[in-house]
Write a structure and sequence with these properties.
Length: about 625
Amino acid sequence: MSILKMKFVSIVGLNEYFDDFVLKYIVDSGMQLENALSYLETVKGLTPYDGNNPYYDLVTRSTALVNAMGLKKELKESTDSTRQIYDSADEIRSDIAKLEEEYRGHSEHLEKTKEMLNKCIHMEKQLELLANIDVDIKAFFNFEFIKFRFGKMPRKSYEQLQLMSNDLEAIAIPVSQEKDFIWLIYFTPRNFSEKVDGIFSSLYFERTRISDEVQGTPSQALRQVRDKITSLRSEMKDAEKAIRDFTSKHREKAINLYYSSMRLNRVSEVRKYAAHTMKSFYIIGWMPEKELNRLIPILDKDEKIIYIHKEPDTEKLSHPPTELKNNRIFRPFETLVRMYGLPSYNEVDPTPFVALTYFLMFGFMFGDVGQGLVILAGGIFMLFKLKIAFGGVILGAGISSTLFGFVYGSVFGFEDWLPPLWMNPMHDINTMLIAGIGMGMALIIVAMVLNIVNGIKAHDLARIFLDKNGIPGFVFYLGGIVSVVYFYLNNKLMVSAGITAAILLIPILLMFFKEPIENFIHKRKAIAQSKGVFFVQTFFELFDVVLSFLSNTISFIRLSAFALNHVGLFMAVFILAEMASGFGSVVAIIIGNILIIGLEGLIVGIQGLRLEYYELFSRFFTGNGKPYKPLKKQYFS
C-alpha cells in the first residue's frame, strides 16, 4: 500500500565494456533509463551513440517466426525469467535460420498443395458444365474456328471486363468465385484470339490448361479431377500435421530465440539513452531501491565501472517514476486511480483510500443482498475467468452492496425477508439524508489530512500551513462543523463567541494572505499587482473557497438520494408486478431487478467515481506522476 521506492543511479565504464556490461547487469533489470546527454552537459566530449541496431534482424525474424508458428498468445502468457537465453547473436541467427528453413519447407509444401487443390476444385466446376459432351477433352480445347480458355482473374478486373463486354469479340462465363478472384471460361473466334488473349492478359487473367491435367472425355476427366482432389486433401492434412508436429517440437526453442533476440535488442535501446566519450560510457536512470541493494555487492566487485546512487530528494533534474505497490485486495482499485492520473513519487498512494471510500459509497447507495450477490458473481467472473482487473472493483462493489443490503434489510427489493440491521431508507428519510452528509464530511476531512501529509512529504510549507486544503482549511471546516452541530444539539456555542470567531477567522486570514506570505518567505515583492486588485480578487477567491466547502459537503447528499431512489424503483416494480398478477408478476420482478442492476448499478458506480474525483481527489491528489517503465518490460511486443 505504497509507492515503490526508487534511487537515481549513474554508471560510468570503459567503452569497450559497454555491450558486456549492459547484457550482464542492465537489460534484465528494473532500471528506467534517462537521457544521459540531458544530465551530463558538463562532461567534455560527450556524444550520443549512433542509431545503428545490429540486432534488428534478430527481432524481426524471431517475431515473424513465432507469429507464423502461432505462438503469439504464448508470448503474452510467459516470462523470460525461466527460459534458456542465448547471449551470442551469431548463434541466434544460425538457429533461427535452421528453423526458418525447415518451417518454410513445410509451409511452402502446404501452400502448394492448397493451390493445387483450389485449382482442381475450380476445374471440377468447369468440367461439370461439360460432363454431357462426348468429345475428347483435347479436341474440345482445339476447335478449328473457336478458342476456349479457362482460368481466374481479380474481381476488380472482372468488373472492368463487364464494362467492355459489348465491344469484346468473346463470350465470358463465370464458373465460380473466391474472395478476391473470379473463375471463368471464355470463347473467342480463332482469328480474334490473339487480340482477346492480350486483353484478358492485361486484366491479369491467369489461365489454367485443363487439357494438360486430364485426359479422355469431360466425364472421364471429371472423375480424374475428383480422384486428384481426394488425394490432395489427404496430402494437405499430412502437410498440416507436419507443421503442427514442427511447432510442437520446436515451440520452446522458438520462444527462447524470440526472448533472446529481444534481450539483445535492449542493448540497442540502452544505446539510445546512453552517451560516451572517447574512453567511457555513461548510463543513468531510476532503479527500485531493493533491486539496487541486491546489485550493489556485484557492482562493487567490477573494476571496469564506477557508479553512484542518490536519493530522489537530492536529484533536481529528474523526477522519479511512480509504481503503485498494493496488495491483492486493493490492487484492482488502481484502475480507478490511473483513470485520474498517477500520484507523484512523493505523494501518498490514494489506492487504499479509493478502495475503502468507493466500497462504502457504492453499498450506501445500492444496498441489496440479492442484487449485491449478482454483482459479486459478475465481478468474480470478470476477475478470474476473463482476467479483467476491473472485475476486482465490481467484486468489491458486490460485497459492499450485499453488506449494506443486510443493513437495510433488502433482498431483491423485498424488505420483509430479512430484518434490517439498522433501518430501511424509506422509513426514516431524514436520518438517511443526515447519514449521507455525515459520511461526506468525514471523507472531506480525511482528504484534507491526506493533503497535509502530501505537503509534509513534499516539504511544501505553503501547502501545509496556508492552503485551503491544508491546516487552515482543516481547522476552518472542522471547527465550523463542530460549532454548528454542537449549537444544533445544545442550543448554545461549545466555547465562547470570541474563541469560536478566532477558530474560524484565523484560518480564513491565513488563506487570504497566502500569496503575500509566500512571497515574503521567498524574498519577493509581497503583492505583485496593485493592492486593490489583490484584495478584490482574493476576496472573491476566498468566498468561492467557503462556498465550495458547503457545496462539496451538500454534494454527498446524493449518497442518500440514490439509496432512496433504489427503494423507490423497487416500489414501482412491485406496483407493476401487482398489476400483472400470477406468473406475469414474477416476470415483472425479474425484469425489474435486471434493469435496476444494469441501469441504476451503472449510474451509482459513476456517481461514486464523481464523488471520488471531484469532491475528494481535488483536495489532495495532483495525478502528475510519471509511469514506471522498466527496461526488462518495456520492449517486448
